[in-house]
Specification:
Blueprint (H helix, E strand, L loop, with lengths): L3 E6 L2 E6 L9 H16 L5 E6 L16 H4 L4 H10 L4 E5 L2 E3 L1 H8 L2 E5 L3 E3 L13 H9 L1 H10 L3 E2 L11 E3 L3 H11 L19 H15 L4 H12 L4 H16 L2 H16 L17 E4 L3 H12 L4 E4 L3 H20 L5 H9 L1 E4 L10 E4 L5 H14 L5 E4 L6 H6 L7 E6 L8 E5 L6 H13 L3 E5 L5 H20 L3 H11 L5 H8 L1 H14 L8 H7 L24 H14 L8 H21 L6 H11 L9 H8 L1 H12 L13 H9 L10 H4 L13
Parallel strand pairs: 2-3, 3-4, 4-6, 5-7, 6-9, 10-11, 10-13, 11-12, 13-14, 14-15, 16-17
Antiparallel strand pairs: 1-2, 7-8, 15-16
Bound molecules: nicotinamide-adenine-dinucleotide.
């Protein structure tokens, strides 16, 4: 395979490296770069070297496909390549067009000169994987752009347009045209004076280094106290004031330390898990797609409005259908309000807002939406209402249209079977607010056609969502697990913990918000309605009645000004005497003398509650892989990214220890032994020394069949 193209252009050797899709530095590319550099060194007619990436970008950085393989560690490593380019006795000019990230940017920093197209974007995103730029980035960047800018770039991982850095020493020229041509012209304009100019030989002069570093440290500790990588990045930038070799040695040591950190392992797992989730074993990439150029949304409430915005943002004209004019007007006004707010914040132009609103087609008649390629129903969460809507859709939609439901818990198979075209039906479960949240749970019915599923996955990409496929069960992957989590949180309150203590413990673990604050934000009445349905449907259904008592007081959360907390000024939660008394009364009713519960027990009980039901979901084939469950929790429920998701976390702790803890919780006199019965998959994995990550696919998936229909909450 041809990895580096060597071409002569007058006195220039133009080295163009190529490794689609992002010109990453695989072992083959690294080796070929050194060979090409040697060839230029020996080529007598060559006075200078221009280094460029093939296609419309420079490089996306390290080759993630090599992560964890021997090739990643094989010589030459990227930092050897960079050292060789910097050591070259013939001047090297990096010609940067398009994306130039991570290791790609570090290579450019090792070149003697840099010429960039104005819209090229440079950045060091390593911190988002819990790492630091380990190939000289923390040492060279501050020498060129100053400590403050370098810290901002390294700590944010942002991709900065070259034009914004045009005035720094980073770039010798920022141009509008072809950067390779501009690099050659740049060399021509400096005849004789173009000599190797090594960034590592520059001194870092920053009298306020200590103060800038201290301020940055304070900021990152306040923002993410548990995250180690940002703190290590700051240490490295500080070390850039030392001679290059010393600073580099510190960078190397801290990089290797971070590579082994649980934080980076969790973040890297999240990264790969997201990329894997949209792949479905029996849906090859070659599966033909149905057209997706016109959409319809039924119901213009909270979710319908947000879903319509997703389509409009993707440039897809969308009908919005409501039951009556007043509801339709309210829905359209809400959508316009969301766009207006974006205009106000400078995130959207008036022209763009008007263009998007112009693609919204509000209607009251079903016949108007019949030619849409996909229709998503987002009406009330009641089976009778949904079935009535699907009867209308079955009547009016053109053959081949995809019929989707946004239901959170109802049986997608029953909805599908109510139509004459069950193969065209599936669930598209968006999260609130739908135009913001990244997760899209795609619910595959027993009869959903493969091309319908493939098209829904493609839609997820178009709408810039992270898609995870779930089989049919009550609550699908996310909400089924959430019910166990909130149930356990309520048990903890019954036994002696306060909602405040539980929220604080989960926030210290890394959740942005604990379960009770989330309940108040989302509306405690949502869960109350689900529990009412479950109690009616399932005799013996077990859930603490404390949250029902809270709702009976009208304490639905923020929207009511009161929930588990008081909200006298709208959003800031304050402790509530009423709730304290309600809890005390509830405990008395149960005959429980409250005990002191430590934070470790709170965290383990809530997270292992997720893990136990997650194991059932995996075993039943509702989720195809444990990492899909992690993605749902990371992108839809605020599970801390650095912990990699509940299933990854359990693997990291070790399943035998998780299993032991579950048995311990089962012995709790006020506990629910049935709840803590370890899932059959956990029993099997503990017995075989396995982990969720390496668990064989569930029999339901292995047979190539669609996930079994499972309705009901396990455990
Ligand atoms: P909502 O009450 O805000 O909106 C429902 C809308 O549907 C209302 O505007 C109502 O007028 C309209 N409607 C009712 N019957 C109709 C009919 N026959 N024809 C046309 N329109 C009709 O509810 P929501 O929160 O947007 O939830 C909608 C669906 O999305 C539910 O199935 C819910 O479970 C699901 N969901 C909600 C959330 C959430 O956080 N709110 C998250 C994910 C999924």
């Amino acid at each position: 395979m041809h990895h580096v193209d060597y071409a002569r252009d007058g006195a220039a050797a133009v080295l163009t490296f190529s490794n689609p899709p992002v010109n990453s530095f695989s072992h083959a590319v690294r080796s070929a770069l050194l060979d090409a550099l040697d060839r230029a060194a020996m080529d007598d007619g060559v006075r200078f070297v221009v280094l460029a990436g093939a296609g419309s970008l420079f490089s996306g950085g390290a080759d993630i496909r090599e992560f964890g393989t021997p090739a990643a560690r094989a010589a030459p490593q990227l930092r050897d390549v960079i050292a060789a380019f910097e050591a070259s006795t013939k001047p090297v000019i990096a010609a940067i067009g398009g994306m130039c990230l991570g290791g790609g940017f570090e290579l450019a920093l090792g070149c003697h000169y840099r010429v960039a197209r104005a819209d090229a974007r440079v950045g060091l995103p390593e911190v988002t994987l819990g790492l630091l730029p380990g190939a000289g980035g923390t040492q060279r960047l501050p020498r060129l752009v100053g400590v403050e800018t370098a810290l901002n770039m390294i700590l944010s991982g942002d991709r900065v347009p070259a034009r914004d850095l045009a005035k720094t020493a980073l770039f010798d020229r920022v141009v509008d045209g072809d950067p390779v041509r501009a690099a050659i012209e740049f060399a021509g304009s400096a005849p004789g004076s173009l000599v190797p100019r090594r960034v590592s030989e520059l001194a870092l002069v920053e009298p306020n280094l200590e103060a800038l570093a201290d301020f940055a440290l304070m900021t990152v500790k306040a923002r993410a106290p548990l995250a180690l990588a940002p703190q290590r990045c700051i240490e490295c930038v500080k070390a850039a004031a030392k001679p290059f070799s010393e600073g580099s040695a510190i960078e190397r040591r801290l990089f290797l330390e971070l590579m082994q950190s649980p934080e980076s392992m969790g973040l890297r797992h999240s990264f790969f898990a997201e990329r894997a989730s949209a792949k479905v074993a029996d849906i090859p990439e070659s599966t033909p797609l149905r057209p997706l150029t016109k959409a319809a949304v039924i119901g213009a409430g909270t979710m319908g409005g947000g879903i319509a915005i997703c389509f409009l943002n993707a440039g897809i004209p969308t009908w919005l259908l409501e039951a009556d004019q007043a509801a339709l007007d309210r829905g359209v006004t809400r959508i316009k309000g969301i766009y207006d707010a974006q205009v106000k914040k400078g995130k959207l132009t008036v022209v763009e807002r008007d263009k998007r609103m112009g693609m919204l087609l509000p209607v009251l008649q079903y016949d108007a939406v019949g030619s849409a390629d996909i229709v998503i129903e987002a009406v009330f969460e009641r089976m009778d209402v949904k079935l009535a809507v699907f009867a209308e859709l079955d009547r009016v939609m053109k053959p081949g249209a995809i019929l989707a439901t946004n239901t959170s818990t109802l049986d997608v198979n029953a909805i599908a079977r109510s139509t004459k075209r069950p193969a065209d039906v599936l669930g598209t479960h968006f999260f609130s607010p739908a135009n913001v949240m990244r997760l899209l749970e795609i619910v595959r019915g027993t009869e959903t056609a493969k091309d319908v599923l493939a098209t829904a996955l493609a839609l997820g990409k178009t709408l810039r969502k992270v898609s995870v496929v779930s089989g049919v069960c009550d609550g699908f992957i996310g909400n089924r697990m959430l019910e166990h989590y909130t149930k356990q949180a309520n048990y903890l309150v019954e036994e002696g913990a306060s909602p405040r203590q539980i929220d604080a413990a989960m926030e210290a673990f890394g959740f942005a918000m604990g379960p009770f604050k989330v309940g108040d934000l989302a509306g405690n009445d949502i869960g109350w309605n689900v529990r009412k349905r479950r109690r009616a449907e399932k005799p013996g259904y077990k859930f603490p009645t404390l949250p029902d008592k809270l709702c009976e007081l009208g304490r639905f959360g923020q929207k009511a000004g009161a929930g588990w907390y008081e909200y006298p000024d709208g959003r800031k939660p304050l402790p509530s005497k009423v709730v304290d008394e309600l809890i005390a009364e509830h405990r008395r009713g149960l005959g429980i003398t409250p005990r002191k519960i430590d934070d470790a027990e709170i965290v383990d009980r809530l997270v292992y509650a997720l893990v136990n039901v997650g194991a059932c979901i995996l075993d039943e084939g509702i989720a195809a892989r444990s990492s899909d469950i992690d993605v749902v929790y990371l992108t839809g429920y605020g599970f801390p990214a650095m912990r990699g998701g509940p299933m990854f976390h359990a693997d990291a702790v070790g399943l035998p220890l998780v299993h032991r803890r579950m048995r311990e919780f089962a012995r709790n006199p006020h506990g629910d032994p049935e709840f803590w019965k370890p899932a059959a998959l956990i029993e099997r994995l503990v017995a075989s020394g396995g982990s969720f990550a390496t668990a064989p696919p569930s029999a339901a998936n292995e047979s190539g069949q669609k996930p079994a229909e499972k309705v009901g909450v396990a455990a």
